[in-house]
Amino acid sequence: MTDVTGAPADVLHTLFHSDQGGHEQVVLCQDRASGLRAVIAIHSTALGPALGGTRCYPYATEAEAVADALNLARGMSYKNAMAGLDHGGGKAVIIGDPEKVKTESLLLAYGRFVASLGGRYVTACDVGTYVADMDVVARECRWTTGRSPEKGGAGDSSVLTAFGVYQGMRASAQHLWGDPSLRGRRVGIAGVGKVGHHLVDHLRHERAEVVITDVREEAVRRILDRHPQGVTAVPDTDALIRVEGLDVYAPCALGGALDDDTVPVLTARVVCGAANNQLAHPGVEKDLADRGILYAPDYVVNAGGVIQVADELQGFDFERCRAKAAKIYDTTLDIFARAKRDGIPPAAAADRIAEQRMAEARGAR
Q1: Do 137 and 145 contact (CB within 8 A), yes or no?
Q2: Closest C-alpha among 63, 124, 116 to residue 92
Q3: pTM
Q4: 20 to 30 A from 75, CA-CA: which of 112, 277, 307, 359?
């Protein structure tokens, strides 16, 4: 582990001045032989070992990577608490383009760093990492989930992530329109990668009208080929959020999708997507509420994947996990009811529930 005394000044500033989340531990990892540069952030172990995925992304600066790891780790604490898991929150980021830096030697080196934490952090897949990558990491680290079924794992967690988001959409429809059906509703999905393409399948099965966009043209083409009817594409997210008659907007790519520029022009009545950290800054949730837009808290509805990988630690059973992920529907409805009762945005209601569970766990120690 790299001693922070050798870290660049902007990284140290991010660690000691930008972190408002009370993180327990941050590890800077470097392996010169493989080219690995990574950050592991543990936000909380109040409920149990921190659990969260490993993201591989070409961050512009090391400080940006640290900031993302901190934000994502904090989000995992809330997600795991709301999902009823006996896990705290953690996250890791590997710096670099996954198409260029992600080699076997790099993944093995990364696995050794995770293993050095002695089980305080359990890793899994995230943006830029896949089941095959976790199989490699697991060769050096037993605290690895999201492995292939052939290696004793649960496989692709994006399947249940999409299912959970779909349940969140159904709950949003029930709360807003009095009917959970999405048939005939127009749903815009920004990002049709690992999770987004499964979400399209659920929506088209229910005969929803789907509008998609993705920065990767090939991803859009795959969806249009798979669904020749009922799915259309727009050039970019800016066009998607302005689609006339949009009922639901689903951010399913990177975070920060809801900001001061997007919220004022968003045509959808509901926001419910798979992306983490969708609110660009505190106060956006109030802006959404002021416009009459119902926001399904991201870490509540996208918890299907973490439910799946957590189950892997006990001996994976898909139907058991699917039943747990189906409860996201009831959890989302409960959050909407509490928000209405207390006169606060749904995001604030969800935070209160998660924080109460974490506080009770700390108090019981």
Answers
A1: no
A2: 124
A3: 0.88
A4: 112
Selected from 3.40.50.300, 3.40.50.1820, 3.30.1360.120, 3.40.50.10860, the CATH number assigned to the domain covering 4-70+88-151 reads: 3.40.50.10860
Element (H or E) spanning 295, and its range? strand 294-295
Q: Strand 88-95 vs strand 54-57: parallel, antiparallel, or unpaired?
A: parallel
Q: Give 223-228's long-range contacts (Cβ < 8 A, gap of 24+).
A: 223/192, 223/197, 226/197, 226/200, 227/200
- How far apart CA 85 and CA 320 sit, in angstroms, is 14
Whether 158-357 and 4-70+88-151 are alike in CATH topology: the answer is yes
CB-CB neighbours of 116 under 10 Å: 15
Cα–Cα dist 277/57, whole Å:
16
| Residues 271-308 pLDDT 10s | 999 998 899 999 999 999 999 999 999 999 999 999 99
Decide if 91 is catalytic. yes
C-alpha distances in Å from residue 279, one per residue of 256, 275, 323, 330, 359:
5, 10, 28, 23, 24
* Rounded Cα–Cα distance for residues 146 and 354 (Å): 24
| Whole-angstrom distance, CA of residue 53 vs CA of residue 256 | 18
CATH number of 158-357: 3.40.50.720
**pLDDT above 70 as % of the chain:** 94
3-state secondary structure of 209: strand
